[in-house]
Amino acid sequence: MRHTFVLAALLAALLQPGSLHAQAAAAPAAEPANAQVYFIWPHDGSVIEGGKFWVRMGLRNMGIAPKGTAVPNTGHHHLLIDTGLPSMTEPIPNDRNHLHFGAGETEARVELPPGTHTLQLLLGDKDHVPHKPPVVSKKITVTVR
Amino acid sequence: MRSLFAILALGAALGAAVTGGATEAPPNAYCYIGWPSDGAVLPAGKPFRVWFGLRNMGVAPKGVAFEHTGHHHLLIDTDLPPAGQVIPSDRNHLHYGAGETETMLELPPGKHTLQLLMGDDKHIPHTPPVASKRITITIR
What we know:
- The complex is a heterodimer of chains A (145) and B (140).
- Chain A is of the alpha+beta class.
- Chain A has one helix spanning 2-25; strands at residues 36-41, 47-48, 52-60, 63-64, 74-81, 98-100, 107-111, 115-124, 140-144.
- Chain A has a single domain, classed as Immunoglobulin-like (Sandwich).
- In chain A, strands 2, 4, 5, 6, 8 and 9 form a six-stranded mixed β-sheet that branches. In chain A, strands 1-3-7 form a three-stranded antiparallel β-sheet, with no helix packed on it.
- Chain A is elongated and about 40 Å long.
- The termini of chain A are far apart.
- In chain A, 27% of the residues are buried.
- Chain B has 140 residues and is mainly β.
- Chain B contains one helix and nine strands; from the N terminus they run H-E-E-E-E-E-E-E-E-E.
- In chain B, the strands form two sheets. In chain B, strands 2, 4, 5, 6, 8 and 9 form a six-stranded mixed β-sheet that branches.
- The N and C termini of chain B lie far apart (64 Å).
- The chains are: A alpha+beta (145), B mainly beta (140).
- Chain A binds chain B through residues 40, 54, 56-60, 63-66, 69, 71, 73-74, 101, 103-107, and chain B through 34, 51-55, 57-61, 64, 66-69, 96, 98-102.
């Protein structure tokens, strides 16, 4: 019994450097362990009169780089409006529910119709693919009236 | 006639040096300090976050030449450096060449000024320079 345990531990130790190496070489960019994307504005539960507002996109422990730019520990913002998270292994769709900020923008002027809307930020790498693991904000809800 | 031309060329070169670097700023580019607010009083001995605000322009790391982008520089207790030249890198001129859009800062007690200045891929301010308002904060 004890023998098996030691063997398992040894196996894990042997496998670990290999698996780490594989991860670093994998296609989607790895993200720094403490990276965090979040909304500076609006806050969760905000009520917005008129429906036009600036979204201020916050990022900690990581940098912004435009699309196509391969610099370690960077990515660019995507704003998901009224939709769930897309595939984490493919390029983020580009449509009215998935806004791309491939020019390195950190703020966006958004206009939404009256009602309740969800907003979520998702960072994409140089190829618009989410990082591994993904750098994604909390999904917030705003009300336009 | 030829010397007149030379003088004109020299004047044009000097003019370019005075107005800024080779990289043009996007029209309506607006840089500001989102936090702290001008006049803020903050507790001593406690690091605070500085938010880099930027509108109508994007962020790109140093060395990346992408249209209508630049990277942030935070000027602490100093005036704007000369236009058209590389922004100094010292304790009064902090560079954010990795594309950072915020930072943590700790300053000694007293009054301090903060100002943001965008630099292009070579750390040279744009033409015209994209700089925030200079704000004053008090640490105590």
